Amino acid sequence: MSTCDAFLGIDLGGTKILALAARPDGTTLASVAAETPSRESAERVVAVMTETARAVMSQAELDATAVAAVGVASAGAIDAGTGTLVHAPQLPTMSNTPLASMLRQRLGMSAVVGNDANLAALGEHRYGAGRRVQDLVFLAVSTGIGAGIIIGGELFTGSAGFAGEVGHMTIDAHGPYGLSTMPGALESLCSGTALARVATERITAGEYSSMTSVLSNTNRKGLTAREVFAAHHSGDALAQSIITDAVVYLGAGLTNVVNLFNPETIIVGGGLASEWDAYIAPAVALMREQSFAGIGRLTPVVPPALGSEAGALGAIALANDTFRNR
Amino acid sequence: MSTCDAFLGIDLGGTKILALAARPDGTTLASVAAETPSRESAERVVAVMTETARAVMSQAELDATAVAAVGVASAGAIDAGTGTLVHAPQLPTMSNTPLASMLRQRLGMSAVVGNDANLAALGEHRYGAGRRVQDLVFLAVSTGIGAGIIIGGELFTGSAGFAGEVGHMTIDAHGPYGLSTMPGALESLCSGTALARVATERITAGEYSSMTSVLSNTNRKGLTAREVFAAHHSGDALAQSIITDAVVYLGAGLTNVVNLFNPETIIVGGGLASEWDAYIAPAVALMREQSFAGIGRLTPVVPPALGSEAGALGAIALANDTFRNR
Q1: Does A171 contact B170 at a Cβ distance shorter than 8 Å?
Q2: What's the rounded Cα separation, in Å, for the pair A296 and A238?
Q3: What is the pLDDT of residues B206-247, one digit of tens each?
Q4: Residue of A157, A165, A152 whose CA lies nearest to A256
Q5: Which of A138, A80, A114 has its CA nearest to residue A263?
Q6: Which residues in chain A are closer than 8 Å to B165, comparing Cβ atoms?
Q7: pLDDT tens sequence across B112-169
Q8: Using an 8 Å Cβ cutoff, are B106 and B8 in contact?
């Protein structure tokens, strides 16, 4: 393989590290995954990232001279200028970690870091479900709710890199603060964490549910969103009432996105996108009904085409854009 | 004056038509205002626009050959491709009026039409309070709530021209439908129409207020926002409670704008911007406190520098951009 026609992309999440080697056109050459040692030191997390990157290079038979650069899609708030992970709740030991410079030293190649939701949007735009459009919103509905926004074919991050904080959008001004500094924020009402919290609270307050035994049997502090959806599918009335409420909020959030950004396409990813029929589809139906001038009826809402590789492929696109001409 | 170095800009509102003649750099040569005959036919409204345009040309001593084009900033939803006013609640007789082609015929010059909030944003960006920034949001808080958004120095209108419908953003998912297809939309909770409606409803429901006599004396169906603010300033408890509630909603709306667009500057105009200390400033204080990662503390919120001429000057900028090189 000729010099510098491959890039590395690393997706750094709270539970998993995924490294890919790919060509600039997005063709994946190899992929290696590892668990994130999220309770250990930042030094240790970066060491696992480095090992994973070396493993993927070895699998793809690339030496360092054949790799143009590495891109990282990280959870949390990123200082794009320095490539520093400023803060990520899922990675509690890694606040203010200079990820780009650490990887540059350890791997001996140029490095660039971006937010994972932003880079998932970029990945889907460049190589996936958004290839044919210039304006899209990627909504990641998971333990939190994040978004990446493409406007005019470019990643939109606002004047200081903080645009697109869709999870921190107030949907219910009288709602709980929960996971945000904003009252009744989308993330506090519709994320997996929110669904699990509401179920746990309502059972603890004495409401009847098949989830009660799950909660007491396992002697845990709370349920998971997966357990709420399992109860919903088995006909549990409390779980169904919780999902019905959450659909109204998620529908309002989707409608706000349409009314503010009027994208050509919305891509909904993240763990809860696997509950498409039970959760995403009814929220989309509400959005189609409510949106200004009915514009949402013309807005396709689709799952990611790249699945769990969207972030790492977006990181490769970012590395390509940043270092191609240097 | 040499050929084609001036443009006309017309701001078409529900109550007023304002026509300006200006140079491409925004220097105003003359201005003429007229009342909008909003209950009369579309034909008659366009006739008043034409007369006003001719009056401003005469005042500036411009003949038709000296004017490059006319731009129109219109209330309501505009089909930008054809220059048609699709629908404006403030201009009930003018649905589906082909404004651009009617003005082209009557004035004998090229014509282009845009939405008034969008063009106020463009005017402030090109000639006013947003001259030094590349990303701004212009929020018009008036009988309704509209917005114009500049991203990367360009007007952002989304994939089908409907982006920036900030007034139709749900802030309270359990709130009233009011003026929107969305529950608890910003416009239904914070606009002048909303404040007046809430005051009227609460008095009709029996709450005590100094506004009661205003309502019964004049034998009207409802109060105006101006009367609610007057009562607020004279210490009326009901008016103060209504404004306090509305500040929470407007603060949430401003915070959502910051969290989603992260603009360099927010400009707040429209009739209620005259109640800056009583209404806008406390909402801004809430936004600074709530915004994600405190980013709103760095976001200046300022009144328009162009006052009521922002829309007409934005229309001149649009006409300049559209026809300069033809």
Answers
A1: yes
A2: 30
A3: 999 999 998 887 677 789 999 999 999 999 999 999 999 999
A4: A165
A5: A138
A6: 259-260, 262, 292
A7: 999 999 999 999 999 999 999 999 999 999 988 999 999 999 999 999 888 999 999 9
A8: no
Interface test with B, best of A78, A95, A155, A162 (most B CBs within 10 A): A162
Residue B196 confidence (pLDDT):
96
The CA distance from A23 to A25, in Å, is 5
The CA distance from B116 to B129, in Å, is 17
Q: Which residues lie closer than 8 Å to A211 by C-beta, 6 or more apart?
A: A199, A203, A223, A227, A228, A231, A236, A238, A239
**Packing angle, helices A225-233 and A237-261, rounded to 10:** 110
- Of chain B residues 116-145, which have a CB less than 8 A from chain A? 133-135
Closest partner CB to A163 (pick from B164, B180, B261): B261
Average pLDDT for B106-110 = 96
CA-to-CA distance for A311 and A321, rounded, in angstroms?
A: 15
Report pLDDT for B1: 44
User: For residue A22, which phi and psi values (nearest 5 degrees)?
Assistant: -150, 160
Report the chain B residue with the minimal C-alpha distance to residue A251: B173
A1 Cβ neighbours under 8 A, 6+ residues apart: A61, A62, A66
pLDDT in tens, A180-194: 888 999 999 999 999
Chain A partners within 8 Å of B168 (Cβ): 259, 292
Whether residues B181 and A292 touch (CB distance < 8 A) is answered with: yes
Q: Which of A152, A158, A168 sits opposite B261 (nearest CB)?
A: A158
- A169 CB near a chain B CB, below 8 Å? yes
Q: Which amino acid is at B118?
A: N
Burial class (CB in 10 A: 0-12, 13-18, 19+), A54: middle
Q: Who contacts B35 (Cβ-Cβ below 8 Å, separation ≥6)? A: B15, B16, B17, B48
The residue assigned the tokens 């050929």 is B3
Helix (H/G/I), strand (E/B), else coil: B199: helix
